[in-house]
Amino acid sequence: MINSRTATARRTPWTPDSWRPRVAHQQPAWDPAELERAVAELQRLPALVQPGEIWSLRRLLAAAAHGDVFVVQAGDCAESFEDVTTEHITRRGELIARLARSVEQRSGRPAIALGRIAGQYAKPRSAPTELVNGRALPVFRGHMVNDAAPTPSARRPDAARLLQGYYRSATTLNLLRTLPTHLARPVWVSRECLLLPYDRATLRNDPASEEWYLSSTHFPWIGERTRDVEGAHVELLSGVVNPLGVKVGPTVTPEEVVELCDRLNPHGTPGRLTLITRLGSGAVHRVLPDIVAAVSAAGHPVVWMCDPMHGNTIQLPSGIKTRRVADMLAELDGWFDVLTAAGAHPGGLHLECTPDDVQECVDEDPSEVGTYRTLCDPRLDAGQALTLIHGAAQGLRRRGRPVP
Ligand code: PEP
Ligand code: CO
Fold this sequence. Notes:
Elements: H1 32-44, H2 51-65, E1 70-75, H3 86-107, E2 111-116, E3 129-132, E4 135-138, H4 152-155, H5 160-178, H6 181-184, E5 188-192, H7 196-201, E6 203-206, E7 211-214, E8 219-222, H8 232-238, E9 244-248, H9 254-264, E10 273-277, H10 284-297, E11 303-306, E12 313-315, E13 321-323, H11 325-342, E14 346-352, H12 382-399
Parallel strand pairs: 1-2, 1-14, 2-5, 5-8, 8-9, 9-10, 10-11, 11-14
Antiparallel strand pairs: 3-4, 6-7, 12-13
Helix pairs in contact: 1-5, 3-12, 9-10, 10-11, 11-12
Bound molecules: phosphoenolpyruvate (PEP) and cobalt (II) ion.
Cobalt (II) ion binds at residues 77, 310, 352, 376-377.
């Protein structure tokens, strides 16, 4: 039984616009006329993904909620418009597939590959402006909003970029769909749900079922900074049939997590909701047990996914951000320990990684940071990503099947 403590009755019914009166965190200051033009065009353009695909992914995620499938969600922190080339897309698709294949081979658990790809162009930021040479500039918010170059004109939010992002998502997905399945597997794509006008403009109604779906990705997730249970992002996604993710950081309370489950999966359907915890190696043992206990007690069949990246970011004196693989392995290990002790199923691993030859994350020693090309957070290279994958496979072999 689902504990529906949230007073759903007092809410007005969901509509494609019911998010509008709610607080919308992390939105750029668009020019209203430019935004209106872009949104009008987006609304006329075709869906990038189809309802049948969305339901297939939901079935696989339902299996992940039961511990029968493991999900590898991986890709760039922020995709770059410049990386929409045959070579880059192919190599990224192959890496994501390789990670899923590797965990499957090493653990014996079937795995699916869910890319952070084909639309991961918008970023939440901790401050709206940054100081560059003593001058305050709007922050870079991803290529779907502005450009990273530190000039006022590059940083101006440009709504025409929403259309460019749509077309680049379409091109990326088109190429991924043509890759041989032994290289790229069936392709599932995901991105953060952040820019609400874009998400609204790509909502579509499925004539067969009359249900609404987000047609610009299979799997949208809500970030740590926008998961306000009363906010606009939660409202918008509560009405679509796509499987959803929610990021959960160390300051969350177990009550908040249960409220999010109640709002986003009121019927308690396995496969609908994935909780992506990103707690940090120092907090996972302290914070996760109460969350798992509360969600289990409320009867919510979530997919538990570990994001060992975002709670383990460190800033060097130079201002550069990095992450230590040792910390990420420690969080992953703690996550397996906590879930197993609670009798919950480990459902997936969430990584930021690139096939490129970079040294953005380090094994142990922050002085190993080298070639650094990310548009946002530091990514694992292929070898480091495989190290995390091997950690997950080991966890699945040792502790992945709780005794009922
Ligand atoms: C991300 O996944 O790139 C991100 C910003 O994560 P979070 O919302 O967990 O901070
Ligand atoms: Co990131």
